[in-house]
Amino acid sequence: MRRATTVLLSTAAVALLAACGTDGGGDPISATATSKTTTSPEPTLDTSTTDAPTTDTPADDPTTDTPSFPENTARQTAENVGDWDLVFTDIRVAEHESFDRIVLEFTGTGIPGWVVNYVDEAVLDGSGIVVRLGRDAILDIYATGTTWPGPDYYSGPRRLEAENGGVTDIHFGGTFEGYTQVLAGIDGDPVPFRVFALTDPSRLVVDVVDESAD
Fold first, then answer.
1. Residue at 21 is within a domain
2. 114 backbone dihedrals φ, ψ, rounded to 5°
3. What is the DSSP letter of 163?
4. By the 8 A CB rule, do 142 and 114 touch?
5. Strands 86-95 and 146-147
6. Cα gap 50→41, rounded to integer Å
7. Fewest CB within 10 angstroms: 70, 87, 99, 174, which?
8. pTM of the model
9. How many domains does the chain have?
């Protein structure tokens, strides 16, 4: 297996996560694929979700109990479950044998939903500012059912770079009107991805196929 690269946003987030428990498994919720879009989506939710088998594998590690990769690169959506009380705390990028894993972690009692698709430009929700990721494909990731507790809540880095793998750039776009946005730069053409949520703690997981993997 190739070496895993993990990126942490802030030491404050690490301390908060330690107080909330370990990165254990939960009940995965799989994605619903819809037609592909090429512009930044107006965040809307698809009410259909599908339960996947339970796994106790940490979200940073590969597991056989997650949804299969689709054969296309279509937009995927799912509805959040429970209260809209999820507060973003951390993001990690890990390289695995055939895919790269992006994990968004939250505190709160809800389970995140998502809107994930490829876009032509990396546009920040709310401000409309275009950020440059310097890569061929851009994956726009929205976690839904999230909230922002205050203007001084998070002061960590917004731009991250992974050392290896297909996911090479990450830009944390912030939380706006219940949606937390992350933009990921993908090396090469758009490739299939899968999305699912885990609980205890609440996490949104996006796996991106790495076509450069041996």
1. yes
2. -160, 155
3. S
4. yes
5. parallel
6. 22
7. 70
8. 0.72
9. 1
Backbone angles phi, psi at 80, to 5 degrees: -70, 160
Looking up residue 153, the CATH number of its domain turns out to be: 2.60.40.3500
Asked whether residue 79 is domain-assigned, the answer is yes
Distance set, CA 167 to CA 65, 110, 211 (Å): 22, 27, 11
Element (DSSP H or E) covering residue 14: helix 11-20
Question: How many angstroms separate the Cα of 92 from the Cα of each of 6, 10, 14?
Answer: 6, 11, 11
Which token pair is 189? 């053409």
Query: In terms of DSSP bridges, do strands 146-147 and 193-198 run parallel, antiparallel, or are they unpaired?
Result: unpaired
- Are residues 166 and 42 in contact, defined by beta-carbon separation less than 8 angstroms? no
**What tokens appear for 4 in the block?**
């895993």
Domain for residue 214, yes or no?
no
Q: What pLDDT, in 10s, does the model give residues 72-109?
A: 999 999 999 999 999 998 898 988 889 999 999 999 99
Residues 6 or more apart from 201 whose CB is under 8 A from it?
Answer: 17, 20, 21, 23, 105, 106, 107
Q: Is residue 67 part of a domain?
A: no
Instruction: Give pLDDT tens digits for 2-17.
Output: 334 333 343 333 333 3
> 159-198: per-residue pLDDT in tens?
777 766 789 899 999 888 899 999 999 999 999 999 999 9
| Domain range for 112 | 11-61+73-209
